[in-house]
Amino acid sequence: MRITGLLLGAALLAACATTAPPAASEQERTEAMIAYMACLHVNARKLDDHRSDAATIAIGLRSVCADSFLKSLETYSRQMNPVARRMFMNKAEDSFIRQATTAVLDERASR
């Protein structure tokens, strides 16, 4: 009876334990960021009408590059504790607009 109780307790502890996914390697983080930045630059060239404000074009990039942006966020925040992850994600929108606007301006400068 005592062994059954111990086994049940161990099983409950194992079930309640949160298993964090493995930390992303430097290569995974780099690849995710490269894919995200490539998406921004390729689509900035496509969407830019050369009349609109760069931030307006950046907002248009949000839906086009959402998948690569979210993949990059997930890769970089994978091993963060819940509080740090929430803070990181709260800053994500501002980061996206800043990075997308920079991509638009970089593409304009390269023409």
What does this structure look like?
The structure is a single chain. This protein is mainly α and 111 residues long. It has one domain (22-109). Helices cover 78% and strands 0% of the residues. The chain has six helices and no strands. The protein starts with a helix and ends with a helix.
Furnish the topology, listing elements before pairings.
Blueprint: H1 2-16, H2 26-47, H3 54-64, H4 66-77, H5 82-90, H6 92-109
Helix pairs in contact: 2-3, 2-4, 2-6, 3-6
Number of domains: 1
Secondary-structure-derived class: mainly alpha
Query: Which regions are unreliable across 5 or more consecutive residues at pLDDT < 50?
Result: 1-17
Main sheet: strands, sense, barrel: none
Chain-averaged pLDDT = 86
Using only C-alpha atoms, the radius of gyration works out to 21 Å
**Beta fraction:** under 5%
What is the gist of this entry?
The chain has 111 residues and is mostly helical.
Protein traits:
111 residues, mainly alpha, 0% strand, disordered N terminus
